[in-house]
Automatic annotation (TrEMBL):
Pfam (any one): DHHA2
Name of the protein described by the UniProt record: DHHA2 domain-containing protein
Domain called DHHA2: residue spans: 250-375
Organism: Nematocida ausubeli (strain ATCC PRA-371 / ERTm2) (Nematode killer fungus)
UniProt cross-references to InterPro entries, sorted A to Z: DHH_sf (IPR038763), DHHA2 (IPR004097), DHHA2_dom_sf (IPR038222)
Coiled-coil regions listed in the entry: none
Amino acid sequence: METYKEIIKTTKLRELFDKSYAHLESSSIEIVLGNPSCDQDSFIGSHILAVMLGRVPVVNLSKEIFKCKQDLVKICDIMGVSVDELVFLVKNNDAWVLKRGDKEYPVSKINIKAFLIDFNLPDQDLLLSDAFTVDHIIDHHALLEFNSKVHSQLTGMNIQLHAGSCCSIIYRYIRHVCSKTLEEKTGSPDYKFLLLMSIPIMTDTNCLQKRTHDIDREGVDISLGISDVLFETAKTVMEELKTLKKCEPSVPTNMIVQMDYKSFDFPKQYGKKTFGISSVKYAYDEWVARDGAEKWKQSIKEFVEMKKHEFYIINCKVHNKREFYIYNPPSTDFIEKGIYEGKPVNKRAVLNDNEITVYTVDTAISRKIIAPMLFKYLEQHK
């Protein structure tokens, strides 16, 4: 990773960050906002796109949870920016604020134009503010439901479900809208920081081995080529970050469930109901044994109640096995029809506790896949 760090030092990235963050003091700002799970795809994609467009990059997560993500903390180090310099979108006493260091900028007092990446619909509470609007979306997740305030007022929307990584789409967009600048700087180190775009693409496609489309291969080839970095070097960096990502055993449960978490709205006919899905890389048996079954169950209960979800799923993939824990299924046939779609149900009790039953599913059923499946089930069973 030191190779990447040394390359980034020779570029304009630090200068561009300073210019982007300076906009925070304005009464009207343009931001790039990643999704609330804030993985590598969302974090790197939002920050690189923001500095290329002269917008403020915003982390859609609290600073406390972000600091638990050791892979992203290391990426900050590689980029030459400290965690304290980042801008976080958080809720303080039911009011949204942008927070950077000790300074807070109330969303209600700023005209914000947001470019969403790696998701396509912001929190419903944000949309209540007339000062918050969305002008662009780049994503590789399905649009579950049309929102007139967001989707009918866009300047542009680019959703490509086949892309393994959202950064693949973002990088192609950057090469299009910034083509003149990049062409003028050919041979200069100024924009070699675009090398960073290869990290989430390789992570999300397992080094171009899974869920890979031509746009992903193109993204890796060009981003590595701009800095003359070998594919094997990139693989080493990805593996080192992958190791750092597996940090859940040292993190309390109430933080684990928020480290890679997304909230979803029910179909409109249900009113203002939500469900949540957390992706975790911590084996249930080890996790429950660490906390103790009763404490673990209480932690999950408190989290779901805090988020006011109707139901909640933990999507855990470890050792090439994916298992769902489902808190408060919304109907008696939800697991059989919503999760398994009529196929045989495969379940087990964690540490012989029947109140912690988990369901084995195909390893390919990531959150990106299961969320539309559940939305469709709910639509059909109202």
